[in-house]
Specification:
Layout: H1 2-14, H2 23-37, H3 42-48, H4 56-63, E1 68-69, H5 72-79, H6 82-94, H7 96-106, H8 110-121, E2 130-131, H9 132-140, H10 146-162, E3 171-172, H11 185-191, H12 207-221, E4 230-234, E5 250-251, H13 252-257, E6 261-262, E7 274-278, E8 287-290, H14 292-300, H15 304-317, E9 334-335, H16 336-348, H17 362-374, H18 385-390
Antiparallel strand pairs: 1-9, 2-3, 4-6, 4-8, 5-7, 7-8
Length: 395
């Protein structure tokens, strides 16, 4: 109990929006002026906005970061379960005619739309319960990311007006994402479409609106029709791991020359397609060649693990099997503090890892790979025990 009180005290002290006094009402007054400038309906500006309340829980979740960086096995196995695959297949069949129609219209195969739906809200079983307007106002009044959330707050007001919604109908995640596909309000305004033909767009209550909106979103993000997200592959015994990583695209014919093959051992396709090689669990885990559509998936969520989970779940929903080489489950997650030490050591040794923020992203992975190559280690960019010890970091 004392620890929770301490967390709340920190949050209340750190945020100008929730500090004692009139600062939150003053912030709301500023948001009202911006809403008027955006030509939001006067009744919303004058009646709805002043009644909003700060949400301490929202800032607690915004400040909270997991202590440990999850392993790829932990991430994937928690999200692509057999139960989720089975339900995804059943929903794919239930909506098959509609999904085929959407594919003809937008070029997005139905299994991807169902996969996004499954990962975002477990097929609509949990849409979020936080009051969207209050949450966004709280975040807009907090200096950390005020500009971004102010834009989303105004968009939520415009959405409320456009779709004739009441404030209590706008509920979702603590960060303001709403509906079956968890669109932020600005994305809702820009990309959501009427999929069920009732003349309205409701991502909370209409599965067809949500699925069609996902298709429109992906098309607008640049989805390439007829191209997969990527595929699992196998690597030869002697492989140049310095070729691994996002941004190191090569034509499929070049990957084939390096000995890369499909996961079943057959040759890669000969299509003129660029691909990057990802090893999310290092050389001990699965290898994936990812194509341009993988980058589109990541524009929905900037996480490689998320993108791989979407692609893998989509393949499973479409009838594909499990990974030929599943990620090892005995790998241990690194704490964020340990990742910061790794980043600091790499930077000091002349291998630029970027900000020492405790996030093991592509920049840190690339720096670690360069360090491993220079030290004669397997340069897969994965922080195994040997690499950590060479960096002077205890495993």
């Amino acid at each position: 109990m004392k620890a929770r009180i301490g967390i709340l005290f920190f949050i209340l002290s750190a945020s100008s929006s929730l500090a004692a006094g009139n600062e939150f009402p003053q912030c709301l007054a500023g948001l009202q002026e911006q809403a008027r400038e955006a030509r939001v309906a006067p009744w919303i500006v004058d009646e709805v906005v002043p009644a909003l309340e700060p949400q301490a829980r929202v800032l607690e979740l915004d400040r909270k970061q997991p202590e440990f960086v999850q392993t790829f096995a932990g991430y994937l196995n928690a999200r692509v379960t057999q139960a989720r695959v089975d339900k995804g297949r059943a929903l794919y069949q239930r909506h098959r005619e509609f999904l085929d129609q959407l594919q003809r219209q937008y070029g997005i195969p139905g299994q991807y739309l169902v996969a996004f739906w499954g990962l975002e809200t477990n097929f609509g079983s949990y849409l979020g319960t936080m009051p969207t307007l209050d949450s966004l106002a709280t975040l807009a009044c907090d200096p950390r990311r005020s500009a971004f959330f102010t834009t989303e707050f105004i968009a939520a007001l415009q959405l409320m007006e456009r779709e004739n919604l009441q404030p209590e109908q706008l509920r979702g995640s603590w960060a303001g994402a709403v509906g079956h596909t968890q669109f932020m309000p600005s994305s809702y305004l820009r990309y959501a479409v009427d999929g069920d033909g009732d003349g309205k767009v409701n991502l909370w209550q209409s599965e067809r609106d949500a699925i069609a909106s996902g298709a429109n979103f992906l098309e607008q993000l640049g989805w390439t029709t007829g191209l997969r997200w990527g595929r699992e592959v196998t690597l030869p015994a002697e492989f140049r791991f310095d070729t691994v990583g996002a941004g190191k695209e090569r034509p499929l014919v070049e990957w084939a020359r390096l000995g890369v093959r499909r996961s079943d051992g057959s040759p890669l396709p000969t299509a003129p397609v660029e691909a990057s090689l990802l090893l999310p669990a290092g050389a001990a885990g699965p290898a994936f060649l990812v194509y341009a559509n993988f980058e589109v998936i990541m524009r929905w969520n900037r996480s490689e693990s998320y993108g791989l989970a979407v692609g893998y779940l989509a393949d499973r929903i479409a009838g594909g099997g499990t990974l030929k080489r599943p990620p090892p489950t005995d790998q241990q997650p690194l704490s964020r503090e340990k990742v910061k030490v790794v980043q600091r050591q790499l930077n000091e040794l002349g291998f630029p890892a970027g900000p020492e923020d405790g996030i093991f992203g592509s920049g840190t992975r690339s720096a670690l790979s360069a360090f491993q190559l220079a030290r004669g280690l397997v340069a897969d960019g994965y922080p195994d025990n040997d690499s950590l010890q060479r960096l002077g970091v205890s495993p």
